[in-house]
Amino acid sequence: MRHVGIAFDIDGVLIKGKKVLPQAIRAMQRIKENKVPFVLMTNGGGTTEANKAAELSGLLKTQITPSQMILSHTPMAPLSANYSSDKSDAVLILGKASCKEAALAYGFKHPILSEEILATCADIWPFRTPIKGYEPVSLDRRIGAILSFHDSQDWGRDIQIVCDLIRANGDLRRIVEPEHHTHRRRHQLSHPQLPVYFSNGDFVWSNNLPLTRFAQGGFRHSLESVYERLSGKKLEYTMYGKPYKSTYDFAKLAIDTHGQELYPQVESHGRRYFGIGDNPESDIEGANRNGWTSVLVKTGVYEGGEHEAKILVEDVEEAVDTILKS
Ligand code: G3P
Ligand code: MG
């Protein structure tokens, strides 16, 4: 099985809500017995690969290493190269507080959370009291990029802060200091736009409720609309996560690295890559678009009807059996 590699989606394939699917535990056992190189690849995130690998190792009763864990923001790690020294610009990280831990682990030297900007100047978003426990940030360090790692915890706050930072070209003083008021018009986009990155394009996701919840893609649509109304320009940004190429390239390398650990003497050349997922728009589209074999399961988002998957199966156990026989 050295010339097969698999990327498993997590939500709707291995995990359902907060519970692990029994088929997933059996599928993992078979993968280990057959020494198949694999990764877990999710559009979720908001934590470190080490934390998520430890959590899933327990749930799936099999050892998953951090390098086999591809969260939506994992392929963004190399972006830290431009922001990794004491003198580098800071970066704004959108998402829950634990995203900062992930950013530090990737090598970003000065990651900042939106709530820390509110701790610096509550008037930026004056419609609620800032959350206690966040430290103010320095006004002297420019914010050089905006990276959305995970779902925004407060759309209003984050839309305001992102629009402010783009207009002020990352200079917090221009946002908070009153003497800058007279120059307000000159701050309107006479400069190249601050780089903006999103880790997940999913518009909605499902939890225990009957109607879908907005995912990071919902926040992005909202931000784009407000920004365009404000500036008259389209928001420029780069996407990561499934179904985008950067994420599949990253996953291929991670599978090949795992393959090297299992078969040190064997080249990865000629390996066939399979993507098992439940979401036709991210998992199946991503696998098809990037030259992988797409395998769709029925335990998650997909509920029947038309689909573009190469292989359709009931669940992840059948998916693995089908791949092993191929
Ligand atoms: O987009 C939200 C996230 O829950 C999707 O997770 O594992 O199905 O890619 P996953
Ligand atoms: Mg899924």
Question: What report would you give on this structure?
Answer:
The protein is α/β, with parallel strands linked by helices and 326 residues long. It is 34% helix and 15% strand. The protein contains ten helices and 15 strands. It has a six-stranded parallel sheet, with helices on both faces. The chain has a five-stranded parallel sheet with strand order 7-6-8-9-12, with helices on both faces. A two-stranded antiparallel ribbon has the order 2-3. The N and C termini lie close together (10 Å). Bound molecules: SN-glycerol-3-phosphate (G3P) and magnesium ion (MG).
Explain the layout of strands and helices.
Blueprint: E1 4-8, E2 15-16, E3 19-20, H1 22-33, E4 38-41, H2 49-60, E5 69-70, E6 90-94, H3 98-106, E7 111-113, H4 114-120, E8 143-148, H5 155-167, H6 172-176, E9 196-198, E10 204-205, E11 213-214, H7 216-231, E12 238-239, H8 245-262, E13 272-277, H9 280-289, E14 293-296, E15 311-312, H10 316-325
Parallel strand pairs: 1-4, 1-13, 4-5, 6-7, 6-8, 8-9, 9-12, 13-14, 14-15
Antiparallel strand pairs: 2-3, 10-11
Helix pairs in contact: 1-10, 5-7
The site of SN-glycerol-3-phosphate has 12 residues, from loops.
Gross morphology: elongated
Element order: H for helix, E for strand: EEEHEHEEHEHEHHEEEHEHEHEEH
Mean pLDDT: 94
Number of domains: 2
What gyration radius follows from the Cα positions, in whole Å?
21 Å
Number of DSSP E strands? 15
Tell me the CATH topology of the largest domain.
Answer: Rossmann fold
First-last Cα distance = 10 Å
